[in-house]
Structures are given as structure tokens and as C-alpha cells.
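Step 1: inspect the first sequence and its C-alpha cells.
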Amino acid sequence: MKQIAALCLRLLGRWLDSVALDRVAETGYRFAANNGDKDRFEALAPYDSAIALNPDDAVAHNNRGRALFELKQFDAAMASFERAIALKPDYAEAYNNRANVLQQKKRFGEALANYERAIALKPDLAAVYMNRGNVLQNLGRLDEALASYERAIALKPDYARAHNNRANVLKQLRRLDEALTSYERAIALEPDYAEAYSNKSLLKLLTGDFDEGWELYEWRWKHQLKEYARNFAKPLWLGRRPIAGQTLLIHAEQGLGDAIQCCRYAAMAEAMGANVILEVPASLVSLISTLKGHLTIVEKGQPLPAFDLHCPIMSLPLAFKTTVATIPAAVPYLYADSGKQKLWQERLGVTTRLRVGLVWSGSTAYNEAIRSIPLDLLKPLLELPAEFHALQKEIRSEDAAHLPNFSQLHIHQDELADFSDTAAVIQEMDLVISVDTSTAHLAGAMGKPVWILLPFMADFRWLLDRTDSPWYPTATLFRQPANGDWNSVIGQIAERLKAMTHDR
């Protein structure tokens, strides 16, 4: 009986290797939620049984690793994959799976080497080329990533995820028509493919097609925000019913910059006769309280007052049928606290130099490498005769090592408790220079002159090729002329700033 059970488990494992590689082993595709020991036991029990019957069963170790990967237990998964490889050194699927773990750990070079090994062992596994494309994209090797996705599609023409990821690279390469075609191919192959719809929405918004873009953007709740959807008993409001006399809850989602950008719509909802409750993260409560109107501001996580309807904050442009021409762009709509501003006036004192607020990197909690600039690249800027003040609360360790070289940069991270503090500092600046972060949005919302430094393929809200922003009239946009080329951007703004300091 034990021998029959072991044979059945081995056959199941080989079937999983042959047909499930493109689903279970794709890095970053879908993860099972780990809801406790019961889930873990049920996921691992078959493979533990197989290993107990035959400790040298490489297939069982590999599939046990896959189950652990689904449970996001990456170190344990790695150990299982490595055991499978030790038992079977030519096990292509196990190399692929080990690479997936390495990619989750952001050890991209090692991941790539493992994908290459899997391909050398089995050149016809479409999922390995797909995963290899993902890691090449993370490494910024976009042309190679594109070739890898196309090889996956050649091996498996109906591979919806490869079409979707191919489109992502084409978008980064600014081959936008081809990207759109690829997203639509992915959707045709898999009509409920939420990620492809969500990505298509971002492309539509980027190109200014707000009519279709905002509608498609609602797919985010079935893709990247699936775990964060709010299951309120009250109806969702997307602008299709009157709200006069109703209490509308607007709740923040995603990043802080999104909340700063779209809180402007609260006044429009109030003008339609709604009583508005605005729920935002704790770090934004004091700042958002400066919005005009009779709004009720609630810290996220605190009890909510009664309401009749609700709307996620990034769905407000859809609710108000926003087009590029109708963006509500009256600034300022957020303000510095007068008491905090006075404290900063006293702290900074009087200067004859141009005061510049500077943000060169985003939070390490998010994958913002593409939008961040290494501090040492700012040397041409920081050598100019201006007074520079860091407006970011978090300074990355690699940048902290360079701070002694830039004594002219004033650091205030310990004084910035929340965004009302940041607003008070911004109010004392003549100019804010920022990468695409929440501080750039804040400066724009306050009506401050702000120069926003953007990567080659910028976020959808900055549209294409423009040097101005219809969202923020006081903003000027500076874009990379090629992927990764921050030096050109720094050179351009250094020349502009040099002229300003000379005039001063």
C-alpha cells in the first residue's frame, strides 16, 4: 500500500511539473494566503508524506517547495528546491523555482543564472523564459526582457501572461501602440485577466484617454488591490446617482501622493450637496484638515461615522468624469499650519540665498528605484550657491554615506513628524525640486513652484512628453531622455537653477 501511495504521489508530482509550471511557479503571479497552521498543513501534507516514504524523491521536494512558495515561506521553499537540485542536478523545473525565490528576495543576478541553467537543461519551457523576462526587466535590460517574453510566446502562443508582460516592457520602451496590442491580446486569451485590464488602464491614462482609462482603472480592485478592497455594506458611488443630502465616505488607498492629488475632489462632492467624510492615513490627517469646506476628517483605522455611500479616493476622477481638459486644477487647496510655519521661520532664520527644498528618493517600503536618484549624482546641483533643505524623512543607507560630502544640504528628517510639518517647511522654500513622490504632489497642491524629475517612462498621471502638468499649474516636469539617464536631467536643472541663483 505504501508503495502504491508513493507511486501515486510521484505521478502527481510529475504531472504538476509538466502542466502547472506556468501557473504555480511564475514569480509574482499569484500567492495563496497563509491563514495559519491549518492551511500550511493541508498544503504540505501530501509532499511530507511522499518524502517520508522516499527521502530521495526530488519531485516531492520540488513540489513541497512550490507549496511553501505559495505560502510565502521563501526560506523554507529555497531549502526544498536546493534539496531537489542536490538529488537531481539536471532538474530544470527546480532551478526555475529556486530562481523565483531569488527574485522575490531581489537577488536578481543569482535568479538570472538559475533561469539560464533551467533553459540550458530544458530549452522548451515557456514559463522559464517568461520568468527570465521578469528578472531582466527588474535589471533594466529591457531589450533582453522583450526577447525572453517573445520566446515564451513562440513556445506557447496562447500564453496570456507573457503577452501582458511583453506589453509592460514595450510600454517602458515607449512602443505604446505595440504595448496596447499586446495587452489586448492577453485579454482576448483570458477575458477575466484583471492584471492586463489594469495595465491597459494605465496606458490609456498615460496617453490622455481618460474616458476609457478611468473605467478600466476599476480593475485594480481585482488585481493589485484585491487584498485591500473595503467590503462596506453601503453602496459604492461612482458618480451614477445623486448624492445631495447623502453622507459620502471618501477613503484613501494606495500611496500618500494619490490621497494628496485626489483629495481636491472632496470639495466638489460637497458642492453637489453631499456631507463628506474623508478617511486618510495618520500622517495626512493634519494636512488634509486644511482643505476648505465642512469635511469630517477621520484617521484610517479609527471608527467611522455613519455614511450612505462610499468611494475610493482614486475612483473620484471616474465619478466626476474627469478628462484632461476638466481636471480641477485650482491651487492651492492644501495649506501650511500657521503655527508650524512660524516655528520654521524662526528655525531657518533669514537668508539672501535661494531656498530650495530637495527630494531625491522615495520610501524604501516601495519599489521606487526607477523613480529615485542616488544622492551623489546631485553634486552639480548642490555645488550651486543656493540653500538646500532635504524634505524627505527617510534617507537611504547608501545615500547617508555621501552626506558628509554635502554639508550645504540641511537635513530635517527628525523634525518631520507628519505631512503638516513638511508643508510648513515647503512654505518657506522658494522652489521645490523632487522626484515623483508624495512631496512633489504636496508642493503642487500648495501652489509652490516645483520641479518634478521623472524617469523615461513616467507614471500615468504625468502624461506623455509634457513639461507642464494639468494637475498642478505651478509644476515643471523634467524627463529622462533615455532609460536611466539621470545625468542629463540633473545637468538641465542645474543650468536652470544656476540662472535663478545668478538673478537672485
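Step 2: inspect the second sequence and its C-alpha cells, then contrast the two.
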Amino acid sequence: MARKHHYAPGEYNALAQLGLSNWQAGDYNGAVDLLEQSLDKIRQAGDVRRELEILNNLGVVSKSKSMFSEAISYYELAQKIARKIGDRSGEATLLNNMGSASLTSGDFVQAGIYSEQAAAMAAEVNEPTLQGMALTNRGEAYRELGQYGLANITATQALMLVRSSGYRRGEAIVLDNIGLIESSLGNFAQALEATQAAVTIAREIGSRSTEAGALIHLGLIQTQTKQFDAAQQALIAAKSIVEELGEELTLMEVQAGLANLMLARGGSDNLEQAYTYLAEMLPLLLGESPHEKPRFLPMWLYLTCILVMRARRDPRAEQLLARADAELRARSSKMTDAALRRGYLNVTEHSAISALAGTLSSQTI
């Protein structure tokens, strides 16, 4: 109808809505095509504020496609507009999105920089929810870098902000992160309390993806504390959700979590079950260079695979170990600050991979 009546705003807004509908349905290429059509019409009309919004949406879709550099490029174009028109709130949102994209791609240093800028700007414009989201990302970046004290302080600040603004999904995400921080510090009672609270909130608000992520972490923590039956229940529940949502890469984490559980239980039958859980992902991990993967994979996943394969005497274990070590070195080499790099390499699973790789090198020599 908009085309029939030559009503440009109606046409580009309808195209934008269709694009978002495609994105929500998982048709990312269709979403990009429609959003780009909308963007072209918007630029012809000179609607710069709407242009900013569509560029941001294109960044969100690119992140969903694991095209992180492309996502950042869209956000940066939108940021230029936000600065030009003096939209500080919009710029804070874009900086937070840049931080989120960097975090998901494994660039934790840059994620921290973007998130810190976003949090400061959100505070200036009095947007506590946005500030809390930015501090959530900042806390996650600290945790991934092994800076657990700073991670805890930042996560506590984020929790206060998201709670004060009633953003319950944000509260679940922060609590999940706090659980991981406490687990890394060996504070398992606090870790279990925070992670179980995250699961409860996610269920109450119907956020299935958030619930699945928290359940995976709950299962990992319960495995560490030898609560094996509870861990299996959490991981199976996560598996059901992830399969329903069709999140293939998250399913790899579930399978690795279940393999880790079976290995911890001990016994030959459990070892065979652990190996079965990993069977589908091993060709992917062994078939290409890890740093060329479309999405950052956690190092604990590599370590679990290596330990299970070694226990089962799979000759490919040393090949995967060499790749995991190379991936770890590639990630740490991007950190120009020596102290940050040392902290990152001292994270438990990272130091374990380095130690195993060192043993492999000495045997080769």
C-alpha cells in the first residue's frame, strides 16, 4: 500500500519490520536483504535517526550470523550518526552492542573497553538498565580474562542496576555470571546459589535461551562438587531446550558438559558414554583450524574433549591438543598488555592446556 501511494516512510518502515521478523524467525540472510532495502529508502528520504536504528539492527543480525567484524562496522556507522545528531543514549546502546559482539567473538580486552565506555555514557544520560547491561558485559570480560576480583565488583554493581530497573532477564544473566566467577574462585556454595537463582528467574520470565545457558553452567558446577545426579538433570534439561531452539554451537557446550560429567563419574561404561557425547563435534574440532571457526568456543570445551580422548586412547587427542594450544596462543597474542596476557593464561583450563601441551612437546623432543 505504501508503494501504491508513494508513501516512503510507510515503505521503509514496513521493510524494516519485515526484516526484523525474518531475523526473529532465524532467516538472517532474508533479514539483511530487507533491512538493506529499507536502509536505501531511508537514505533517499534523509531520515538519519531511522538510518541509525537500521544500521544498529543490521549489526544485531550480523552478530547473530557470527559475522563480528561486519557487526562492528555497522555499529560504527551508526555511532557516527549518533554523534552527529547528539544522541548520547543511542551511542551508549551502540557501544554496548560493540562490547557484546566483541565478547561473543572472544576479544575480551576490546569488549571491556567498549562496555566501560557504554556504562559511563549510560550513567551520564541516566539510563540504569543500559548501564547495568554494559556493566554486565564488562564483568564478563573481566571474568574471561581471569580478573575475578574486578569481575565480582562489576557484576555486583550491574546486579543492583538491573534489579532497580526491574530488568529480570538482565538479573538472570548477571547472576549466571556471578555463579561462574564464584566457581572460578572455588566458592561453590555461592556459585550454586547464584546460578540456581538465574535458572529460576529465566524460567519465570520464559527466557529459554537464558535458562539453557544457566543450566549448562549449573551442571558444570554440580559436576565439580560431585553432585552428579543433579548435574545430569540440569544438563539434560539444557539439552532439551537447546535442541528445541536449534542452537547448534550451544549444543556443543551441552554435549561437552555431559561428557565432562561422565568422565568425572569414572568407570569404563561412563567413559564410553562420554566419548559418545563428543563423537559428533570431534570432526568439526579436528577438521579445520580452530581460530577460523565462526564463533568463539570456550577452552574448557577443548580441554574436556582432550581429556576424554586421552582416557579412551584416541590417537587424535594429541592433534586436538596441539590445535587447542595454538588457539590459546592466538587468543593471548592479541593482548598487548603482558599482565593481562599472564592472567588470561593462568585461568584454570588455559593453564591445564598449556601444561598438557608442554608435556607433549617434551615427549616429541
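Step 3: confirm your contrast with the notes below.
Confidence is low (pLDDT under 50) at residues 290-294. Residues 169-245 form a domain with the Serine Threonine Protein Phosphatase 5, Tetratricopeptide repeat fold (CATH 1.25.40.10).
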